[in-house]
């Protein structure tokens, strides 16, 4: 008998088309109800409930009750990281669910990957932080340098708070559309939150598209321009 993690079980959970659509919908970072997820999957509420029970039992979801409603979100960053990687693999192999359209272009420009910025602007953020030596690769780890800590603090990001939680501070996430890294981890989440707090950007919960205002785009380019 082979020993080690049973990847076939997790792969089977994700591999069902209806469940895959549900998990993709939850990449927005927003908790959704059974009814909302049934619409995303194109199945009945009863069938959706069955799928969600399997995903929950497999450790891929975090269910929560509020009043009479039950909400589901991805269990953690690890699940989102795996899903983004699978999207990149599928896109690289030519397995796309629909033809390119306006929303696809917007998603490729800037989108939410669970809780951090992805797409062209996400990889630009990562590349700029690397070029300015605010981030560095140490073996297999992505680290925030001293200058990076000063930059983040100057951008009103509370690093002490970020370092106190269990989520890795910095993490590379392979962007499915750009095939390059964008910034994940609690720092990636904090940057996106600051962009929203400053009214530079807003997210569309239904499509995951992140739209930057004219001023926001100008300020983003000023701070994270690639020379």
Kindly list the characteristics that best describe this protein:
single chain; 227 residues; alpha+beta; 3-stranded antiparallel sheet; two-stranded antiparallel ribbon; 11 helices; 11 strands
Task: Give the biggest beta sheet.
Answer: 3 strands, antiparallel
Q: How many strands? A: 11
Strand content: 15-25%
Report the helical percentage. 40-55%
Brief summary of the model shown:
This protein is α+β, with helices and mostly antiparallel strands. The protein has helices spanning 7-15, 17-25, 34-41, 45-57, 77-92, 102-109, 120-131, 146-154, 159-164, 185-197, 214-224, and strands spanning 32-33, 61-66, 69-74, 111-113, 116-118, 135-138, 141-144, 171-174, 181-184, 201-203, 210-212. The mean pLDDT is 88.
Commentary on this structure:
This protein is α+β, with helices and mostly antiparallel strands and 227 residues long. The chain is built from eleven helices and eleven strands. It has helices at 7-15, 17-25, 34-41, 45-57, 77-92, 102-109, 120-131, 146-154, 159-164, 185-197, 214-224, and strands at residues 32-33, 61-66, 69-74, 111-113, 116-118, 135-138, 141-144, 171-174, 181-184, 201-203, 210-212. The strands form five sheets. It has a three-stranded antiparallel sheet with strand order 1-3-2. It has a two-stranded antiparallel sheet with strand order 4-5. β6 and β7 form a beta hairpin. α2 (17-25) packs across α3 (34-41) and α3 packs across α4 (45-57). It is globular and about 50 Å long. It starts with 6 loop residues before the first helix and ends with a helix. The relative contact order is 0.12. The model has no long low-confidence stretch (mean pLDDT 88).
């Amino acid at each position: 008998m082979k020993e080690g993690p049973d990847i076939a079980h997790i792969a089977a959970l994700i591999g069902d088309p209806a469940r895959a659509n549900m998990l993709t919908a939850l990449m927005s970072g927003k908790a959704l109800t059974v009814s909302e997820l049934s619409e995303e999957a194109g199945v009945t509420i009863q069938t959706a409930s069955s799928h969600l029970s399997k995903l929950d039992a497999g450790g891929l979801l975090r269910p929560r009750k509020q009043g009479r409603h039950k909400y589901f979100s991805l269990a953690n960053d690890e699940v989102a990281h795996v899903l983004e990687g699978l999207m990149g693999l599928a896109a690289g192999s030519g397995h796309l669910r629909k033809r390119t359209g306006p929303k696809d272009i917007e998603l490729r420009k800037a989108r939410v990957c669970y809780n951090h910025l992805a797409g062209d602007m996400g990889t630009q953020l990562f590349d700029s932080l690397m070029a300015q030596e605010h981030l560095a690769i140490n073996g297999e780890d992505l680290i925030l340098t001293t200058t990076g800590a000063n930059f983040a603090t100057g951008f009103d990001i509370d690093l002490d708070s970020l370092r106190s939680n269990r989520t890795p501070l910095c993490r590379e996430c392979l962007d499915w559309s750009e095939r390059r890294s964008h910034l994940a981890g609690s720092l990636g989440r904090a940057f996106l939150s600051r962009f929203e707090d400053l009214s530079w950007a807003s997210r569309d919960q239904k499509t995951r598209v992140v739209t930057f205002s004219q001023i926001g785009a100008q300020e983003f380019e000023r701070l994270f321009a690639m020379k």
